[in-house]
Amino acid sequence: MRNVKKTRKRQQKQTQKKYNQKGGFIVPILSHNSSYNDNLYVRESHNCYTYFLNLKSDDSVKLCKNDYSKYNMCRRAQPGYFKGYPKLNKNDYKCPTMMKRTLDDNPNISKTSLKRSCPSNYYKGALVVAPGRDYHYYRLNDDNVWTHKPGYKPSTHLDANNNIIIDPKKANRNYGGTLNYKDFCGFMCVPKDSDLKRMSHYDEDRNNPNNRKNSTIKNNNYRNYKRFKNYKNYKNYRNFKNFKTMKKKNN
């Protein structure tokens, strides 16, 4: 009996090691996870990009609660916005541009092929484009099932023909009219560690070229804030910095 308990404890420790890394906590990627679908504001504020990254944003949910009642839609993270790219337009919906925006946001993501395995604690994803209209992402879960989240709609393991997706490259991606994701951009290896991935919805301070200077100041202040445990300590630090600056000027 004691040996059985010891074995179970050892297995639990090994599982914990598997899902813990220096960068942060690693959550298993599962096709039956309905957390993107169950809550209205999560579903509306998260799209195929956030689902592909397996990231959720509390800020996006809060914004959605305010926006949804007014506009019947919510702001969502888009490729390139974290890096400071301007708003997407129809000329951006092509493979080279969308892949660049994806990798610039997330330098820990790398290109790969369907047959090539991703490193341990990474999973596979795919990017496609409907030229001049839209982009879309897929992800391969730990249970070896491909899934995707079409915009504000629930996540699914089915293609445009309601067939199970075996390979996104061969799946039917034609949803009618110009919404035909006919261009396959490639496969990628995506880290499971949430701290190794980044996304953002559009932000005037960061994405508007006229506000880049203000954005840099804000980002630097935020980095300094993260060094402290609470706002009070950070405020004391800022006051001390301002005091030193004034002292230099007076001298």
Total of DSSP H or I helical runs spanning 4+ residues: 8
Q: Strand-and-helix sequence, N→C?
A: HHHHHEEEEEHHH
Structural class: alpha+beta
Give the domain tally. Answer: 2
Task: Report low-confidence residues grouped into runs of 5 or more.
Answer: 4-23, 212-231
Distance between the termini: 76 Å
Number-wise, the strands total: 5
Overall average residue pLDDT: 81
**Which sheet architecture does the biggest sheet show?**
5 strands, antiparallel
Multimeric state: single chain
What's the arrangement of strands in the largest beta sheet? 1-5-2-3-4
What would you report as the Rg, rounded to the nearest angstrom? 22 Å
* Percent in strands: 5-15%
Q: What would you call the shape? A: globular
Helix percent reads 25-40%
How would you explain this protein's 3D organization?
The protein is α+β, with helices and mostly antiparallel strands. The chain is 37% helix and 12% strand. The chain is built from 8 helices and 5 strands, in the order H-H-H-H-H-E-E-E-E-E-H-H-H. It has a 5-stranded antiparallel sheet. It is globular. Residues 4-23 and 212-231 have low confidence and may be disordered.
Descriptors for this entry?
251 residues, alpha+beta, five-stranded antiparallel sheet
List the helices and strands and how they pair.
Blueprint: H1 2-18, H2 40-45, H3 48-53, H4 58-71, H5 95-105, E1 110-112, E2 122-130, E3 134-140, E4 146-147, E5 183-191, H6 204-207, H7 212-226, H8 231-250
